[in-house]
């Protein structure tokens, strides 16, 4: 970590991420919207109704072994349980170990899992920077996780150690600018999108108006959350050094991830009551796709699938 002592950093991270309700307290984020999920699916799998996770378990894994697989590890699971409950209930994995650095997040996830009557998911407090779990795991999941890891080399070595010889490292993560240091062109394009939207779409649930977007200084972001995007731009280059990378598929996010932050619910009719929301969202998606096609925006998010080099 980069600020304070390791324990102080862990306390800050726990304060930021310990309560799963806090993340959407100001309003929805881009992936809360089904249309955005379909856009991302389209970029990764080519089918708006087929997620990267479903494609992995239904098309890739069965070529080598029966599904469900025996064991999976979820890194930086957080407190929401969506990932691990989803793959468990789909019947894709028999046993899941999920770790997170935040004790409050782990407690919330464990409580929700117990309340749901699920016995095949086990939670533990664990730091990705010094991962301590017992393998082997058929799949290791890094979903919205690796961009919070400062010691990527240590993590990759640990994943290599606990991943079964014929296992997979499944990554779906933010791989954009470290510490969210967006480019000037990116900030300009985001603000152009925000400025063409009617006022009613720009106010979040805490009455904050999102008309103008700006880049937060790296030191300010690190002081608030020492783990946030700490080495995000190095995730893929270091992955390719350590593993055999079978696939990398970017899915954008350079604009809408930021433009829709805390206001995405305004584009959902059930949330806002505004029937024009989906149409404005469609226009935003079309603009984002076109700018991406022109090469004017980068893929800040990516799906990657990696394996042991010897596999």
UniProtKB/TrEMBL annotation:
Broad class of enzyme this protein falls into: transferase
Listed EC numbers: 2.1.1.-
Record-level Gene Ontology MF annotations: methyltransferase activity
Residue ranges of every copy of the Methyltransferase type domain listed in the record: 76-171
Annotated organism of origin: Lacibacterium aquatile
Protein name, entry field: Class I SAM-dependent methyltransferase
Oxidoreductase keyword on record: no
Keywords for this protein: Methyltransferase, Transferase
InterPro entries, A to Z: Methyltransf_11, SAM-dependent_MTases_sf
Lineage per the UniProt record: Bacteria, Pseudomonadati, Pseudomonadota, Alphaproteobacteria, Rhodospirillales
The keyword Methyltransferase appears for this protein: yes
Pfam family membership, one: Methyltransf_11
Swiss-Prot/TrEMBL GO biological process terms: methylation
Highest taxon listed in the record's lineage: Bacteria
């Amino acid at each position: 970590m980069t600020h304070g002592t390791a324990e102080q950093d862990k306390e800050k991270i726990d304060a930021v991420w310990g309560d799963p309700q806090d993340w959407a307290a100001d309003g929805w984020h881009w992936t809360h919207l089904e249309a955005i999920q379909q856009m991302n699916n389209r970029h990764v799998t080519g089918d708006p109704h087929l997620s990267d996770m479903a494609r992995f378990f239904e098309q890739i894994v069965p070529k080598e072994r029966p599904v469900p697989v025996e064991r999976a590890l979820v890194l930086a699971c957080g407190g929401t349980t969506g990932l691990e409950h989803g793959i468990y209930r789909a019947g894709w994995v028999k046993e899941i170990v999920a770790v997170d650095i935040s004790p409050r997040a782990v407690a919330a996830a464990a409580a929700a899992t117990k309340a749901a009557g699920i016995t095949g998911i086990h939670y533990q407090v664990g730091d990705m920077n010094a991962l301590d779990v017992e393998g082997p795991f058929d799949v290791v999941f890094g979903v919205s996780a690796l961009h919070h890891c400062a010691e990527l080399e240590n993590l990759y070595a640990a994943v290599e150690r606990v991943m079964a010889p014929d296992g997979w490292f499944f990554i779906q993560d933010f791989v954009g600018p470290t510490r969210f240091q967006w480019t000037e062109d990116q900030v300009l394009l985001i603000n152009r999108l925000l400025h063409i939207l009617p006022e009613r779409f720009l106010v979040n649930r805490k009455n904050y108006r999102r008309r103008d977007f700006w880049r937060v200084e790296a030191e300010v972001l690190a002081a608030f959350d020492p783990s946030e995007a700490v080495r995000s731009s190095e995730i893929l280059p270091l992955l390719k050094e350590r593993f055999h990378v079978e696939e990398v598929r970017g899915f954008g996010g350079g604009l809408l991830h930021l433009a829709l932050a805390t206001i995405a619910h305004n584009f959902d009719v059930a949330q806002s009551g505004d029937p024009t929301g989906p149409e404005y969202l469609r226009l935003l998606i079309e603009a984002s796709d076109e700018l991406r096609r022109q090469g004017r925006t980068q893929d800040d998010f990516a799906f990657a699938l990696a394996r042991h080099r010897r596999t």
